[in-house]
Design goal:
By secondary structure, the protein is an alpha+beta fold. It contains 1 helix and 5 strands, in the order αβββββ.
């Protein structure tokens, strides 16, 4: 039997793919959560519309600063001297 956190992660990846499909997007999950099965980098968990490569992470609790406040739609974050990301 698989480790509970692995099962939770796999379910989350499937949920993400199904949500993308519900919005009319083409989405595909990488077999075994390994992008190499799709000819991509190993940390790719899913592909949306063939050009968006996503890694899906689920945690018990997210850091509060990652979440956008109720008055905003997105949160833009960047590590010092790093890349900028949108959540």
């Amino acid at each position: 039997m698989a480790h509970p956190s692995k099962v939770k992660g796999n379910k989350f990846e499937r949920d993400c793919v199904n949500t993308a499909k519900d919005f009319g997007l083409e989405a595909k999950r990488a077999w075994g959560s390994d992008g190499r099965s799709l000819g991509l980098a190993e940390d790719v968990d899913m592909v949306i519309d063939e050009n968006i490569h996503a890694q899906c992470k689920i945690r018990k609790k997210l850091a509060k600063w990652v979440l956008p406040p109720k008055s905003c739609n997105i949160c833009i974050v960047r590590e010092d001297r790093g890349e900028t990301f949108v959540t």
